[in-house]
């Protein structure tokens, strides 16, 4: 379990920060989360739970942020989501359910 402490400054978690942490089962993000970098939790095959706290800053989720998290079956995105890569959840569990408004927030410049 990984829980980030609340803070007053916007929090950015850089690309590949927790890449391949297979023992990681759950993550809880604070309300000041602003950026999840590319592949930040990629290949975390044991990750089953991701909790976003409704935020106070606009949130951007990078390319393959949760790519190949094959045990992840449900995510509820917060209302403060500004932008998300269309590949953020690529190759996750076949039955992954993504709750919250996200499709209109996919980065239109991404190929």
Short recap of the structure:
The protein has no helices and nine strands.
Mean pLDDT: 94
Element string (H = helix, E = strand)? EEEEEEEEE
Radius of gyration: 13 Å
Number of strands: 9
Helix tally equals 0
Q: Which blocks of ≥5 consecutive residues have pLDDT under 50?
A: none
Shape type: globular
From the helix content, strand content and strand pairing, which structural class follows? Answer: mainly beta
Helix percentage range: under 10%
Strand order of the largest sheet: 1-3-5-7-9
Beta-strand share of residues:
25-35%
* Distance between the amino and carboxyl termini: 33 Å
- Report the major sheet: 5 strands, parallel
Explain what you see.
The chain has 111 residues and is an all-beta fold. It is 0% helix and 27% strand. The chain has strands at residues 2-3, 11-13, 26-29, 33-36, 49-52, 59-61, 74-76, 81-84, 97-99. The strands form two sheets. It has a five-stranded parallel beta sheet with strand order 1-3-5-7-9, with no helix packed on it. It is globular. The model has no long low-confidence stretch (mean pLDDT 94).
Please give a handful of descriptors for the protein shown.
5-stranded parallel sheet, 0% helix, 4-stranded parallel sheet, 111 residues, mainly beta
What is the secondary structure topology, with strand pairs?
Blueprint lengths: L1 E2 L7 E3 L12 E4 L3 E4 L12 E4 L6 E3 L12 E3 L4 E4 L12 E3 L12
Parallel strand pairs: 1-3, 2-4, 3-5, 4-6, 5-7, 6-8, 7-9
């Amino acid at each position: 379990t990984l829980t980030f402490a609340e803070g007053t400054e916007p929090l950015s978690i850089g690309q590949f920060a927790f890449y391949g942490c297979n023992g990681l089962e759950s993550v809880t993000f604070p309300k000041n989360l602003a950026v999840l970098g590319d592949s930040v939790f990629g290949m975390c095959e044991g990750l089953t739970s991701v909790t976003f706290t409704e935020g106070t800053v606009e949130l951007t989720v990078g390319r393959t942020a949760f790519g190949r998290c094959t045990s992840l079956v449900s995510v509820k995105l917060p209302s403060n989501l500004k932008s998300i890569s269309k590949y953020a959840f690529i190759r996750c569990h076949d039955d992954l359910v993504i709750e919250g408004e996200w499709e209109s927030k996919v980065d239109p410049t991404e190929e």
